[in-house]
Amino acid sequence: MSIEYMGLSEINGPLIAIEGIKDGAYDEIVEITVDHKEKKIGRIVEMYKDKAVIQVFESTDNMSLTNCHTRLTGHPMEIGLSEGLLGRTFNGIGEPIDNLGPVIAETRRNVNGKPLNPVSREYPRNYIRTGISAIDGLTTLIRGQKLPIFSGNGLPHDQLAAQIVRQASLGENSDDEFAVVFAAMGVKYDVAEYFKKTFEESGVSSHVCMFLNLANDPVVERLITPKVALTAAEYLAFEKGMHILVILTDMTSFAEAMREVSSSKGEIPSRKGYPGYLYSELATIYERAGIVNGSTGSVTQIPILTMPNDDITHPIPDLTGYITEGQIVLDRSLNGKGIYPPINVLPSLSRLMKDGIGEGFTREDHQDVANQLFSSYAKVGEARALASVIGEDELSPLDRKYREFGKAFEEKFVGQGFNENRTIQETLDLGWELLKLIPRSELDRINTKILDKYYPVVEN
Question: Given this model, what pLDDT does residue 406 score?
Answer without folding.
Answer: 94
